[in-house]
Design goal:
Helices cover 0% and strands 55% of the residues. By secondary structure, it is mainly β. The strands form 2 sheets. Strands 2, 4, 5, 6, 9, 10 and 11 form a 7-stranded mixed sheet that branches. A 4-stranded antiparallel sheet has the order 1-3-8-7, with no helix packed on it.
Amino acid sequence: QVQLVESGGGLVPAGGSLRLSCAASGSSFSSDVMRWYRQAPGNKRELVATITSGGATGYKDSVKGRFTIARDNAKNTVYLQMNSLKPEDTAVYYCNVVQSADRIYWGQGTQVTVSS
């Protein structure tokens, strides 16, 4: 059974840093695009960062220069390093992999709270 398990969330003051991890099991995702999304209360889930199998990355404008997505295919893990955190970054963060129309995987989410 495929599982994505996020970790690393927490409560930090504005300006602080967190490193999120998403460990995958049950399948290899080394050839797949992996993504981080987030959802704040009352808001739609939004795409934050993307990394391809070759390591190309993309970011939501508001996090460019502050967040870095990376992957370790040997560990089947994707990371999100978040620096200079702002209160508006507060959300539940989810990792996501789409292998096909019927193989879409989400983690359970990890809460990130940034205090002002």
